Amino acid sequence: MADKISSITDLPLDILVLVFPYLDAKSFLALCSTCKSFHQPSIRLDPPYWSYLVRNTFRVPNQPVVQHDGDRWQKMYRRLLTQSRVFTWGNNSHNRLGHAPQASGGIRSNWGMMRGPFVRRTGPPPQSQSPVEMEHTRNLGVIADMQCGGWSTTLLTSKGSLHIAGVLDGQRVFHESAPLELLHFPEGYPSHAGTAQYEEPAVAIRQFSAGRSHVLAVSDNGKIWSWYSKKQPALQVKFATLQLNELSLNKDSSTPSSNFGQIRQVVAGWSRSSAYVHGVGIVVWDPVERDHDDQGTDTMLVMEHSEVPKSNYQRSKTTRESDEQRMLGEEVGVVLSYIILEHYVVFATDIGKVFCGRFEDKNKIDDILELKQVRHDKGVPLDIQGSFRSFAVFRDGEVITSDQNYLEACWTNRREDPEQTNIQGLKKIPALQNSGVISVAFGDYHYLALHSNGRITSYGTENSGCGSLGLGSNKEAVVGKARGLTYDQFNGNGRLLPHAYKNGRQIWFDERKNDWLAQVINEPTDDKESEERKQIWEHHHNVQGEVSEWFEQEAKAWDQDGGEDGLGAYFALGVSAAGWHSGALVLVNEELATKEPTYNREKRSFPRLKLSDGTEMPGEKDFDEWREGCPGFQLDAANV
Questions:
Q1: Is 584 within a domain?
Q2: N or C: which end of the chain has fewer CB atoms below 10 A?
Q3: Crossing angle (nearest 10°) for helices 25-32 and 47-58
Q4: Same domain, yes or no, for 437 and 484?
Q5: Are 307 and 265 within one domain?
Q6: Which residues span the domain enclosing 486?
Q7: Residue 558, burial from CB neighbour count under 10 angstroms (0-12, 13-18, 19+)
Q8: pLDDT by residue (tens digit) across 64-113?
Q9: Which GO terms describe its cellular component (predicted)?
Q10: Partners of 540 in the beta sheet?
Q11: What DSSP line would sit under 259-295, residue for residue?
Q12: What are phi and psi of 441, to 5 degrees?
């Protein structure tokens, strides 16, 4: 007979973890402090507990790559309560960045002359080359998620309300300067979750997705809501030939139930809406809008939708599978994540496979095709992320990027080259490999990577020098050039040099770094001594690229103080991009952020380096050392 259990510590761990979700953070930490057995990291930093607490309390979306990092989730929980900030950068037409209006001094007109000198708010700046905090966001409470759309930036708060800067319908609204606004609901519902006098699961948003010109969301009780204009209330989405089941949040938790017909996730694409419905799979339909003469409508009945073939499989531990279900589980598996691109749906499954399907008329997909060159040989689950025309596959620390051209080639040659061995288009950017990348966000021509250490790196091109890469600039673009950007003299496009793809270029949230960089370039202590090598830097891209790497290494020595939790002054939780702008959700430790950096910021002349090919830059000063050594640059890295 088994020994009698006399203490809770005698219970096996798999029993204890069933209790954890019923404890709030204070109770859980109190339990962990009762004895050494509970204080061990495997319990105190239990990943399922802390990830559940963060996602349930703050509505933060799951991050599959780090879902087993309990220490990270616990630190996020502690700091989200007071330190979440939202930064945006890039093109600011329609005030999509949500920045404060510029202030300008001086005398502007005869009216102004009569009044005397004044300071005038001139409207939002046209663009921002480096991160700037969004206006009016600190009074929203905890920001759980942010996403960029074609002409907008949308925020989700921990209360479940959505707030938007810019416009959704940018092709119909040509100018907008309004600050951040609430997305609201039709009459009969609370205007938004923040105004409800009690918890209202019908309007508290659990998860949302920003497409090019619409926002799609699912509420706590499983309703689908869609916005096509920030001036109009949401439309509830229902289907003529598909029964959706809402969640019953008050029922006895001991009562077994099926999740069939319930919404797990919504994804808004370039020109499509979609949802993953349990037991049905990925469902796709056209975005909904009201008729001009029907402004009172609160629900839209979708008459036509499509379902992605073979995306409906669910593993069951209680019922016996049919042969057909078993074969589907072995061939395709359970959909874990999916994306909606311009012409394709792409999804990853729990058996280490990735599939795509091409949209035909009326969103119909006739069949799916496995992308065999990204399959995990051992069947380990993968993650897929992407938007518009680009995507990334996460596989054992690797990040494989590609675009619709690759999908089109695989689709077109699926009979001639079924293994896809001769199809080009998969890339492995060196800076993204085994560097703790959690997520990748794609704009039209640029993309950003969020790393597990809270840093964001930037790649690609910023059109017309709009600043979407977030690497900074100033007069004559010298800061951008020092970060590794080369600008086209005709259209102003800023392209990141190949040198930057070796280790990446970090986005700086401390604006003092840009000031320091501008000072080094513009205010040398001995102008004549550095003049010749500055000229070489100005006119030779290879030298520019290597000097930008030296500046990158110097900047990493800027803020060595990680604080008590090791997260540092700025720790990014999420990153987003669309079109020509970008944004990030960042934890900001104000004490560390205002602290004088340990880096010596005394005036210094332009660096003198020994370049990777042995060339010595001219000058009389001693050579500047490479803090991390001169890297072996891979100049085809952007196309690997």
A1: no
A2: N
A3: 160
A4: no
A5: yes
A6: 471-506+511-557+608-639
A7: middle
A8: 777 788 888 888 888 887 889 999 999 999 999 999 886 433 333 332 33
A9: cytoplasm
A10: none
A11: -TT-EEEEEE-SS-EEEEETTTEEEEEPPP---TT-T
A12: -115, 135
